[in-house]
Amino acid sequence: MNEKVVNPNVQFLTISDDEAGQRLDNFLLARLKGVPKSLIYRIVRKGEVRVNKGRSKPEYKLQAEDVVRIPPVRVAEKAQETVSHKLTKVAQLEQQIIFEDNYLLVLNKPSGIAVHGGSGLDFGVIEALRALRPEARFLELVHRLDRDTSGILLVAKKRSALRHLHEQLREKTIQKDYLALVRGQWQSHCKVVQAPLLKNELSSGERIVKVSEQGKPSET
């Protein structure tokens, strides 16, 4: 299988105030687009990635003025072309952007598209947006929507915006409403469902929730 080199030269990147606070592995995933997470962890573990000339762990939280050494990384062309095979679908997402400024991108996510790769899928909305905006230094999901759920999805364009929006979500100053279309006469006693939900992972890697006595109390 043919290979491509991501960032053919060794890079030394100084962390800005806006980039500070994120984990080293997440920073590398955003910088080394198309590189599998397993390879990211391998080059960190082997010491090929350095922070301030020293070894570091993937979970290390970067600080402003840290200098990160990123080596050239060889990956199979197939991994690089994952998104390009879906270009038509990816390009359609550009039409779904309903608001954008220097800090935030708001997308009307269609049903049937995952918000991120993994869970048995090659790519998702965030990977598609990064392919559409290769010049963007930072694009991160503020929250998630299920693959089959359509609706408003917030994407932060700066670390500071992500922190502020996460804080608002924690403090519940952001209101999220979900609308469901039902058929027939919906009985009043069925409008509220109280059942414990347990996260479950399928053999494909897809994560779902199911009703289980071992689950967390939930009200739907």
Helices and strands, with pairings:
Elements: E1 3-6, E2 11-14, H1 24-31, H2 37-45, E3 50-51, E4 67-70, E5 73-76, H3 77-80, H4 87-94, E6 97-100, E7 104-109, H5 125-132, E8 140-141, E9 151-156, H6 159-170, E10 197-201, E11 207-211
Antiparallel strand pairs: 1-5, 2-4, 3-4, 6-7, 7-9, 8-9, 10-11
Helix pairs in contact: 4-5
Q: Can you walk through the features of this model?
A:
By secondary structure, this protein is α+β, with helices and mostly antiparallel strands. Helix content is 22%, strand content 21%. The protein is built from six helices and eleven strands. A four-stranded antiparallel β-sheet has the order 6-7-9-8. Strands 2-4-3 form a three-stranded antiparallel β-sheet, with no helix packed on it. Strands 1-5 form a two-stranded antiparallel sheet. Helix 4 packs across helix 5. 16% of the residues are buried. The model is unreliable at 77-83 (pLDDT under 50).
First-to-last CA distance: 48 Å
Structural class of the helix and strand makeup? alpha+beta
| Main sheet: strand order | 6-7-9-8
- The sequence of SSEs as H and E is EEHHEEEHHEEHEEHEE
Average predicted confidence as pLDDT: 83
Using only C-alpha atoms, the radius of gyration works out to 20 Å
Number of helices: 6
Question: Which blocks of ≥5 consecutive residues have pLDDT under 50?
Answer: 77-83
**Proportion of beta-strand residues:** 15-25%
Overall strand count: 11
Question: Strand count, sense and closure of the main sheet?
Answer: 4 strands, antiparallel
What fraction, in percent, of the residue positions are helical? 10-25%
Q: How does the overall form come out from the CA principal axes?
A: globular
